[in-house]
Amino acid sequence: MSETMVDVLIYLYENYMGGEDQPPVEPSTLEDELTQAGFSPGEVAKALRWLDELAQVVGSVVETAPSAGVMRIYDERECAKLDREVRGMLLALEQDGILDPVSRELVIDRLLAIDHPRVLVEEAQWVALLVLMNCPGRESAFSQLEAMLYTEDACSPYLH
């Protein structure tokens, strides 16, 4: 099975974060469960570390008022990892009011933390959902994105 860290994150969301079930309290029990579900121990460890880092990053965010008309410029490293389609999806989410400048930067940070050279649009969508889920005050945006992800004929060409 060639599951990635993002697949582990999606599994966790669909089985625990998006429903009423709670993950096991003991990290080793959760790791065992994920391994039994077919994920490699290395990918499980990366996913759990990624979630811990997300909690730390969200907890340390200082919100600043964005200046009107400011546009996000991606550096060379970001462009290499986040292709035009991913960057376009992020822009569309921001224009639709789902991401604000702070949550956009959190999403970009978490996308860059994924350990493969290029991030796919589907992975970026799930990362955006996980980030919004962890951002206080962004519940409405989270619900909008979740609905878009689970709707076949989503409004945005970047979501399916």
TrEMBL record:
InterPro entries: Smg
Entries under Pfam families matching the protein: DUF494
PANTHER family: PROTEIN SMG
Family designation: Belongs to the Smg family.
Protein name (record): Protein Smg homolog
Organism: Caldichromatium japonicum
High-level lineage: Bacteria, Pseudomonadati, Pseudomonadota, Gammaproteobacteria, Chromatiales
